[in-house]
Automatic annotation (TrEMBL):
Pfam families xref list: MFS_1
Membrane topology recorded in Swiss-Prot or TrEMBL: Multi-pass membrane protein
Protein name: MFS transporter
Organism: Paratissierella segnis
Superkingdom in the source lineage: Bacteria
Keyword Transmembrane helix recorded: yes
InterPro entries: MFS, MFS_dom, MFS_trans_sf, Proton-linked_MCT
Keyword Transmembrane helix: yes
Gene Ontology MF terms in the entry: transmembrane transporter activity
Residues spanning the membrane: 20-46, 58-76, 112-135, 147-171, 177-198, 235-255, 300-319, 325-348, 391-411
Gene3D superfamilies: MFS general substrate transporter like domains
Keywords: Membrane, Transmembrane, Transmembrane helix, Transport
Sequence ranges assigned to domain Major facilitator superfamily (MFS) profile in this UniProt record: 22-414
Entry's Gene Ontology cellular component terms: plasma membrane
Amino acid sequence: MSEPLKNNTSNTSFGSWGWIIIIVGFLLMGVIFGTGITLTGFIVAPAAEELGVSRGDITMMYTLSGIANIVSLTFVGKLFEKYNLRKVMSISLFITGLTYIGSQFVTSVSQLYVLGVIRGLISGTTSVIPVGIVTNNWFGPKVRGRAMGFVTLGTGTCAMILNPICAQLVANHGWRSVHLLFGGLSFFMIPIIMLFYFTRPEEKGLTMIGAVENIQPSQLAFNGLTEKEAMHSPAFWIGLLAISFAGVVGVVWNFNNSSFLVGLGLQATQVGLMLSSYSIAMMVGKVVLGILVDKKGLKFVMVLGIFSRVLAFICALLVPYNIAFVWGLIAFLGIGIADSTLVNPLIVSEMFGYKEYGKIYSRFTQLSNLVNVFTPTLMTMLSDASGYTAMWLACIGFCALSLILIMITFAKKPTEMKLEPVTEN
């Protein structure tokens, strides 16, 4: 006879297994997701110079990888329902590591494209989607914001540590050494996932941590909309555009931060210091915003994130006149962009519930990535043609659109989505 489940709904402490799940998610968001997103700026310029192509040509690798990721997200939610999440993640991370090692031998940009496409096809199963699924399974509405804040803190923390390392690797050993590091980190995560990253608390004889009173955690799976119902809701599509437009500016910054700062006449060590400071600001932002989600609500945090982004790009416009504004850019953008990985999984559960969370979150991520897939290439081309001023003004425009759409999204929240007790049939 199996042991009874230990109830965690009456408290908001994470407990030992709760912290283990948070730490593993933290590492995944840092050394897997973070390396492929926040550290790409170190690759673009030196790879373009070595291979004799433009920065836009190198950025196209990430565009193609993004397209491949979008295609794969059609099946990711169903894949995790059918197969063991830990095994799927481990296989995908092994292949990811091989693609990074393979970049040591490329001699043309087309070969980079092939490796990028392979990586994109499996990227949906390595970090963001499974981390969102597992975190939502383990943590209830009373603590989910804080839990997600700590998990997504990994992106900034690891970036802070790896930024100066990557800067020195590029300076001393070339851009390929950075990909070699990324490959090693992919292999490093495999045994950790297999040993510790359990999909649901029930697998360890526990129940959801911080669930709402009077609602059994087992009932949460019956609350909310199906994937089909969610996609017929105006909130899905309007919220999708709101998230996508807000995410555009983060993508633009990550792909252009190093070259922008170097263009100001800063040395590699100074750039590394500034980007590490940006990572610290993002770390602080994730913790603070996670707490604010639980206390003030998701809408408040999303609006705050937009205003922080706008202030950041105003500072970016002023940097050519006074270099001191770069610190305002770093501080405001670090806090503003901190909400990107935090908000996405939370808005899906808040708007559409838990019934088919994995499927809806995969679809939501797929479509938001579709909106953003061409952004790096197009915005880099814009900066090449018209300079950084035009690009920063475009980012402010995206923020304004996102703010309007956020307000409409919450006004259109499905009336069917109510967190109330239900009776299991």
